[in-house]
Each structure stands twice: as C-alpha cells, then as structure tokens.
Amino acid sequence: MDLLRDNELIYGRLLPIEEPHLIERYNKALRAFGLTPTTRERIDVDRTGFSPQVAEDLGDIHYLDPNEINRRFIILSPQQIDHPVVHTAFSNTSQLLYEFMTANARAINALTIKDVIYGEIEDSISKVEDIEDLLSINQVEFKVLSAEDVTGKATELATLVDRLRQEPDFWRDTASLEHMVELAKVTGDIRNNALVPDQVIFRHRTYWTSHFGGLYVFIDPQITTVISDPSAPGFRRSRPWQVSYLSLHDAERVFDFLMETGRIELPRSSWIDASGYLEHRAEMAVRMLIHQADPGRDLAKLDRIWLQTWIHSNADLINREGTFPFLNAAKRELAQFGQIKLDNVRPDQRFLLVRANPSHSDAWLTNRLISDFVPFDFLARYVFNKQGFYCDYQNFSEKWRHQVVDVLKDSYLKDKAGLRARLYGLHDRG
C-alpha cells in the first residue's frame, strides 16, 4: 500500500499531531484504553483519532475498534471535524462524529484547550453475531471521558455552585469552598466555558458495515431493507413484516428497490449529457479491457486518438465483452429519445447507466452500492467505496496499480469537489 500512501490515496488529509503535549495527551487516552503509548514524535489522526502510525506500531488496525462495534474515539483538537474517517466498520461513523462534534462544539473547544477527550460510541450490543444484532441498534450514545477528568470536575463544581446559591449556610463550609477553588484551577470559569457535552445520543441511520463480508441497511418509514450476501447469519430469519432482505447478487431486485424508493437517478439527457457519465463508464471499461489484453502496457500516455485506434483494432474483443458497445447504444438512444428504456436492459447492465439521486439523503451510500455492481470503475469505487477499492487493489498487478494511481491523481485528487459535482451531482461532503 506504499504507492497509495505516497500519493495520499490512503491515509491522506489527516491532521498532523506533533506538539509534545498533544502526543502525551494522546498517550493518556491510549493508556486509558489499556494500549501501549506511542513513542513517535509525530502522528496523523483522522476525525475519530485513529492514527495509521499507531496502528502500525501496535500491529492492530482495529485498536480503536476492537470488536468492530462500540467504536472508540480520541479528540485532541476541534480541527479533527474537518478530516475524514479513514478506518471504520460502519459507514456512518463519520457522520455520527460530525454530529457529536457540531452539537457540542463549545464544550469540545473548551475541553481540548486543557485536556484530551476520549471514549466510546456505545450502542446496545457489544458483539455482532448475526444480522439481528445490527438491526437492534437504533441509537448510539457517546460515552465521554477526559484524561484529567475535566468534565467530571466541571460537573462537580457546577453542583457545588448550585449549593452555594441555594443553601444559605453553605458559604460557611470552608473545606467545600477551598475545594471549589481547586476545581476552578482545573476547569476555569464554568459560567463562560461549557465543559460538559450537552448532546450525546444520536440516531443510528442508514449505513454500510463490514460485518458478514459487507452489508447495507436502508431505513424507510415503513420498512428496513437489508442487502447482503444470503450466507450472512440471520438473513431472512427475523421480522419479515418489518425487514426486507435482498441478496447482493440479485441485481434486478436491488435495482428495483433503489428505483422504487427514489434513491437513483434514471438515465436522462437532463443530467447525462452535461456530466459525461457514460463516456466515463466507457473509458473505465476500455481501460480494463486493455489491461486484461496486455497487462504490461503503459497507459500513462493514453489519449483519445490512441484509444480510438486500439478500439478499432480490437473490435472483436470489445464486442465479445459487450460493455463498450452497450454504452454506445445507450448514448444513441439517449440522443434520440432523451431517455433510456430500462425494460430491455439486462438488470446487471442497468447499474452502468444510473447514479444516486443527488437530493436523497442516502446518495453517498447508494453510490457505494452501485459501485458493487460496476467493480471495473475503480474511480467510483475509490470515491464511494474505499474499503472495496483497497480490497480490489490488493489483487492488482504492480503495473496496473501504478496506472490506477495515475488516473486517480489526475482525475480526482486535482479537483475532488469538481469531479463529484460533474459526474454525480454531489456538492457536499469530503
């Protein structure tokens, strides 16, 4: 994975931590979790406090996620909110952290001046053994601690202040007054600094999880839909009146679900023409075929003229595989009628023509699901499904790895927001 790391395609955009007092605070949190402190003078952390350097030293990429449930977090700075979550078993961990840090911004800003915040995103279970365990999670609670117990001291001081206001003789209790002074030395003026997070309970919404080989949970008002491999324990076993189970291998039913619930944008000229979406899919398909036909070929200098020449010279191969001619036929139909009739399209090929509805709250997760049905589009896999991309990458040849990295650098890293807006109609989230 060194090539990805060197090009900031894995563990990129993290927050550098190199001030000695912050490293020591991080180590206090590690000790509280029963982990070995780091000896490094600099680490990088994501929104949750996960550090790839610490994971490497501990030999445990799950050091903040020991059972891949009840995720731990370490907050050293409010700046962490602007950084991604790079390792998680649940796709909504990033959003939950964002909501927690936004709702409690004043407390986090004040606390991190003096202390490190750490704890767990706790839910109703401690281990996932089947799908029902996942479905039982309706909300999560942030269990918040601090190394110097600033939050506990602030709560204690607030209680003593209330007693001072309400009990006429409390001011005569010299020992309590002296204790208040000592507490205030740690907490500062709690009348101005909110040191206790106000909101710690948040809803557990639609998500993907790495459990059971990758599983999606979509939540609608009347029903919850689980999409996974049918071999996952608990598949179609419980609550059929509340839960619909779809096989991740059943392209037709998955597509119908996404269409019926308004989660996808059907192929129409109104968005496809300007986006270059079909052209992008076609280029990804041709790149795949060139690599498969000639694994040693360098595609770094690939341009439109060379590409057209290769396509004409390899027409039999292209027609036999079928993706490129299918996309060309779709473009012709779109140009003639302004839309594409999907009734005559094979279920698996329908995913080539659609994207998530950008206005739907599940747009990112839907694009992730679509990428499972179009695995050769490594750009979409990288943007929406990094776990899937990294898994694919492990099986790439060295030559193909370099070519994939070059494409991602040139087409995505140069203008992430612009590419997401053009191809997928998305204008938020990093």
Shape: elongated
- Contiguous low-pLDDT stretches (5 residues minimum) are none
SS strand fraction: 5-15%
The radius of gyration over CA amounts to 26 Å
Number-wise, the strands total: 12
Largest sheet: 4 strands, antiparallel
Task: Please count the helical segments.
Answer: 20
In spatial order, strands of the major sheet run 3-4-5-6
Give the terminus-to-terminus CA distance: 22 Å
The overall pLDDT average reads 90
State the secondary-structure class: alpha+beta
Helix fraction? 40-55%
Question: Could you name the key traits of this structure?
Answer:
430 residues, 12 strands
Descriptive account of the structure:
- The protein has 430 residues and is an alpha+beta fold.
- Among the domains are: 157 residues, no CATH class; 125 residues, no CATH class.
- It is built from 20 helices and twelve strands.
- Strands 3-4-5-6 form a four-stranded antiparallel β-sheet. A four-stranded mixed β-sheet has the order 7-8-9-10, with helices on one face. It has a two-stranded antiparallel ribbon with strand order 1-2.
- A hairpin with a 5-residue loop joins β7 and β8.
- α7 crosses α8.
- The longest helix has 17 residues.
- The two termini are 22 Å apart.
- The mean pLDDT is 90.
